[in-house]
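Module 6 notes. Inverse folding takes a fixed backbone as the condition and produces residue identities as the prediction. Think of it as a translation problem where the source language is geometry and the target language is the twenty amino acids. Below is one complete input and output pair. Work through it position by position during the lab.
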């Protein structure tokens, strides 16, 4: 099952709905799909999908690499029992965010350190 999470950020349509449309139209995904459009933060993304993924044998969080790492950390904090089922997704795609990747890496690593120090 594909679970997509994300509220409206840059308009009225939620990120989850946009990703669902992309998965169906561009990627050709035809399997079961559930969306959470209420989340307004990464913490809420994780909290809101927990009821949807409790029965999963494997859990894969996919986003850009630093956001996915943050979500994995949040899952460990919220539900370590589910986090123990995490498997790696393909977070990095060659050439993605090429010009801003170094700055995002520094910022993201700093933020992850702060999360882990709490």
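Target side of the pair, the amino acids:
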């Amino acid at each position: 099952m594909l679970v997509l999470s994300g509220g409206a950020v840059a308009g009225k349509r939620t990120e989850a709905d946009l990703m669902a449309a992309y998965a169906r139209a561009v990627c050709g995904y035809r399997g079961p799909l559930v969306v959470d459009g209420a989340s307004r933060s990464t913490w809420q993304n994780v909290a809101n999908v927990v009821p949807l993924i409790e029965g999963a044998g494997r859990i894969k969080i996919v986003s850009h690499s630093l956001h996915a790492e943050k979500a994995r950390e949040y899952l460990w904090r919220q539900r370590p029992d589910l986090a123990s089922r995490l498997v790696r997704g393909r977070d990095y795609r060659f050439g993605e965010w090429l010009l801003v990747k170094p700055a995002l890496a520094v910022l993201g690593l700093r933020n992850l350190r702060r999360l882990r120090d709490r």
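Reference fact for the lab report: The first helix runs from residue 15 to 25.
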